Amino acid sequence: MEWFKFNDVHSDDFGIVVKEMPPITIAPRDIESIKVTGSDRQLHIDKGSYSAYEMTISIILMDSTKLDQIKKTYQGTGKLILSTLPDRYFNATIMNQVDFSKYYSVLREAPLQFEVDPISFSNQKKTFVAESNTEVIVGGTAHTFPIIKVTGTGSFAINHNSVIVTESGVTIDCKNMTVTNNGINKADKVELVNMDFPSLNPGQNTITLTGITKLEIEYEEGWL
User: Fold this and answer.
1) Per-residue pLDDT at 64
2) I need a labelling partner for 178 at 20 to 30 A (CA). Which of 48, 165, 166, 192 fits?
3) For the segment 13-30, what is each residue's pLDDT rounded down to a tens digit?
4) Prediction pTM value
5) What is the DSSP letter of 142?
6) Is 193 within 8 Å of 202 (Cβ atoms)?
7) pLDDT score recorded for residue 33
8) pLDDT in tens, 48-107
9) Which domain holds residue 184?
10) Last residue within a domain, chosen from 118, 151, 166
11) In what helix (H) or strand (E) does residue 102 lie, and over which residues does it extend?
């Protein structure tokens, strides 16, 4: 039987039966089409990114005593896990304001419409420790932004994206673009040589250290 979780709440907890799960698709590429004047052709500009898209889960409501809990749970933004892809989660937002009481009184069926980010992520975080120049193989099909704890001062590079560090013990959160040490902002202790926070690509990633004695890298694999 199919199921889903939203913000760690399992659909079975509310006696929800999944009538239909969304198809597994790739996120749409962000491509701009421009009509070429005086021609039947279209000029397509690939912006190198992907767009959010909609997922709809059709559900059957079996227990009327849990309607209030259901209405409270299925709103806002959170992590969505599908039984068809149990090893990963989507960052999702509930898009429709469903009148569950209306649906329950007629067919007991209702659609849950989610807008999901283009990249889904592994439920299990992975860690990698680099104490010298090395390589790490990352699974998935999309780049991902790691959390990096740095021991020592000097510089390091991930895939030629260089970072200079002047204080040992800082933690660089590449996804949220923050630098801290024991919760204290240390952005002035790190210089992004290429102006970008490092990311890990699917496949082989090269790591080089200069002066830095250790990097502890935590990441989630990502899929388009």
Assistant:
1) 75
2) 48
3) 988 899 999 988 877 666
4) 0.80
5) B
6) no
7) 66
8) 667 889 999 998 888 777 877 888 888 899 999 999 999 999 999 998 776 666 666 666
9) 126-223
10) 118
11) helix 100-106
Residue 70's H or E segment, with its range, is helix 67-73
Which pLDDT value is given to residue 68? Answer: 79
Number of independent structural domains in the chain = 2
181 to each of 115, 144, 168, 185, 217, how far by Cα in Å? 35, 22, 9, 7, 15
Residue appearing with tokens 């090269």: 206
CB-CB contact of 199 with 181 (8 Å): no
Say which CATH number the domain at 153 has. 2.60.120.860
Structure token pair of residue 160: 């030629």
- What 3-state class would DSSP assign to 131? coil
Instruction: Kindly report the length of the chain.
Output: 224
* pLDDT tens for each residue of 184-195: 999 999 999 988
Listed in sequence order, the residues at least 6 apart from 110 whose beta carbon sits closer than 8 Å to its beta carbon are 58, 59, 61, 98, 100, 103, 104
Spatial distance between the Cα atoms of 109 and 124, rounded to a whole number of angstroms: 33
The distance from CA 118 to its chain's CA centroid, rounded to whole angstroms, is: 8
d(CA 134, CA 111): 49
